[in-house]
Design goal:
- The protein is an alpha/beta fold and 306 residues long.
- Among the domains are: 98 residues; 32 residues; 56 residues, no CATH class.
- 52% of the residues lie in helices and 15% in strands.
- It contains seven helices and seven strands.
- Helix 3 crosses helix 4.
- The longest helix has 39 residues.
- It is elongated and about 175 Å long.
- The termini are far apart.
């Protein structure tokens, strides 16, 4: 029969596991305490509320300094005189920011909605001792912001309302002027009515045209003839303009032709004189008196200018 195996150091091993478990538990407690700030010093202060109440602050509400969460509201109490006070806690070294001139302001997380919390301002006076008292006031920032918005709206809307009032007054004046029997509009309407009645009765040239179809037809025919005549006159003017351009172009060549003719005549005279002096023809040609040469000024004076 086999003998059971026995550990020689079973008690020592068991004790080691127990000690290790205790160490782990202690380390866990320390880490959890640091995370939960169990080992930080806690300072307690008292806040006093005005007759309006606690501004919706409840037990467990946050306490903040410079935006950091530093504590909470531990209790809301009513004293024998009927006043309301609250007890708040501040953890760690944030107590150094709380001075005798600090203020506890009740605010809302979203300005006008959300949970209420206490915001303690940073003071510059002596440090507030343990158990000191702070007066809690309501946040006026949101009220000031609303007042600023109302002021801006008033600045924009009041001038607009005044302009609308002026426009309504002007419209009223215009409407009154239009309804006046002796006003310009009423007189104009009267004149238009009179003209319309005259046209219906056939008074005046326009009335006769409206009342006499034959006269209107004759006037229409005359108008057509006038249009045709104007078209013919326009065509004649275009033809005259073309003829003028042709004459202007041709007149520019006349001085050159005159000069060429003059040069040809001079060369012909020289040729004839040469033939007369030739010994073969000298006896057979009659010698007449030379004719006077036409001066150049006489020819140039008769040139047609462009």
């Amino acid at each position: 029969m086999a003998k059971p195996f026995k550990f020689r150091y079973v008690n020592e091993i068991t004790g080691g596991f127990v000690l290790l478990a205790l160490v782990l538990v202690i380390v866990g407690i320390i880490l959890a305490g640091n995370a939960q700030r169990w080992f930080e010093p806690v300072h307690r202060l008292t806040v006093t509320f005005p007759p309006e109440g606690s501004f919706d602050l409840q037990k467990g509400a946050e306490v903040r300094i410079l935006g950091a969460l530093v504590g909470s509201v531990e209790a809301i109490m009513v004293d024998e005189a009927g006043g309301m006070t609250g007890e708040i806690t501040i953890r760690g070294n944030f107590i150094r920011f709380v001075r005798t001139d600090s203020k506890a302001i009740a605010k809302k997380k979203f300005g006008v909605a959300g949970d209420a919390f206490v915001e303690i301002t940073k003071g510059s006076g002596p440090v507030l001792p343990e158990g000191g008292m702070l007066a809690c006031v309501q946040d006026t920032q949101i009220v000031e912001m609303i007042e600023e918005v109302i002021r801006q709206i008033r600045e924009v809307t009041v001038p607009a309302i005044e302009q609308v009032q002026k426009a309504v007054e002007e419209y009223t004046k215009v409407a009154e002027e239009l309804h006046r029997p002796d006003g310009n509009l009423q007189q104009l309407l009267s004149h238009l009515n009179a003209i319309a009645e005259g046209l219906e009765k056939g008074e005046g040239t326009a009335g006769q045209l409206l009342r006499d179809p034959a006269l209107a037809n004759e006037l229409r025919q005359i108008t057509g003839k006038i249009d045709a005549t104007l078209e013919q006159v326009q065509q004649i003017l275009e033809n005259v303009e073309q003829v003028s351009e042709t004459i202007r172009d041709e007149s520019g060549d006349i001085p050159g032709l005159v000069l060429q003719g003059r040069e040809t005549l001079r060369e012909s005279e020289i040729l004839i004189e040469g033939l007369q002096r030739h010994w073969l023809l000298r006896g057979s040609m009659e010698h007449d008196e030379p004719t006077a040469r036409i001066p150049a000024s006489a020819v140039i004076g008769k040139e047609v200018l462009p």
